[in-house]
Amino acid sequence: MHRVRFAPSPTGYLHIGSARTFIFNWLYARHNGGTMILRIDDTDVERNTQASLDSIFEGLKWLELDWDGEVYRQSERGELHAASARQIFEAGHAYRDFTPARVESEDAADSGHGGWLFNPGMRELSREESDRRASAGEPFVLRFLVPRETRESVAFTDLVYGPQTKATADIEDFALLRSSGMPTYHMASCADDADLKITQIIRGQDHLTNTFKHQLIFEALGVEPPQFAHLPLLIAPDGAKLSKRKHGPVVSVTTYRDAGFLPHAFVNFVCLLGWSPKDDRERMTRRELLDIFSLEGVNRSNATINFSETEPFDPKAVWLNAETIRNLPVDELSAELLPFADASFGWIPGSGPEPQRLVPEDKIRRLVPLVAPLIRERIKLLGDIRDAADFFFLPTVHPDPLELIPQKGDAAMAALVLQEAEVALAEATFTHDGLDAALRASAEKLKIKAGQMFQPIRVAVCGRKNAPPLFETLEVLGKDICLERIAAARKLL
Ligand code: GLU
Q1: CB neighbours of 61 closer than 8 A, spacing ≥ 6?
Q2: Best substitution site from 15, 16, 41, 53 to test ligand 1's pocket, by max atoms within 8 Å of Cβ?
Q3: What is the reported pTM?
């Protein structure tokens, strides 16, 4: 039986590291025919936000990731957490700490010289005395009584990092319940993991040290601890742990979506952060990932995400995206490009809070499937459509007169080419072959090279030299627009 869970705290935007945790749990569950549980760790009422919760669901939806059954919310499971804390207390594995300073700070304890210092008397408080003070309303923190006297260490075997041991002398008497009665992360998480019968906990390496405490809690609850697999840290190029505060938007999943990553390319990239198949494959379909994913492929060294001011996204992510774009069926690619085309060309820039249409929506809808095959080799992100295809959508182009001049030619040649092109295109059939034949015949007639013929036309209709193949471009633009733009360009010469 395999039951795993993703347990985000809704306190910020969906982080790329959280997405990876979800994806690895999900692949593990789906690969093993197990169950994927989504649990929202929302006990920290002061830090939780609805926006954060929305961003988690939005991100998962974008990535086409699902889970099984209901969404569990810790905030609705307080009774279970309290009952589990009571069980641990009744079994003698916890004590009430009435020390005022600690109750306020909710901190565990100070690391003392050669051990943990607890205010004297709290561990040893008799049950009667403890009950009496509690019923008198004295605030307390419920702490786990780490068995330092009877046990030397806590150990477990991590599925990624191997055998782990920690001396009990190095584990403080951590809190289970705050003075408000609210459970701490340790208490709520273990109570839920036990109740939901989680069999493997797959989470970030930053939780590895918590796992010793969690072992103790599971034991105190009288349940077999789940297996643990910790995932290597995600590191920024500066060597620091990836963080939103330090590294900005590259950390947030929505940044990738908004820049025009395809969901699968992003998933593929994230999988390579700390995991690899046992061969050198990098591009994998979702089916392949599901077939080959295993925790044995997770490595222990930190995974670096590369980005810089000039390259805001990891080159591997960009490469995977470009490859995915190239290999997508045109109808799917068009559907993905449509919102980017509409946002880029549909509206008058800077037209205020109620933007006004520049290009009608039906025109954009009609053009995107025609443009998609022409630009798919030329874009890496869906958002690149803005620069790669503007001349298909926008009403006018603004060619640089110098660029109209063909190689080894002059302004007179450009003028001649455009004049001849106007005549030839007026007559031509607007298909690839029709345009090819017409323009090659024109070049022969003018006794110039085909390239010298094409360049002024390309610059006149596209506004620049760097553009998709000419005949297809002319075909998509249509005769009227081509003639109009050539006439306008002739005036520039
Ligand atoms: N809510 C915790 C987090 O987001 C969950 C950690 C865990 O998986 O136990 O870090």
Answers
A1: none
A2: 41
A3: 0.93
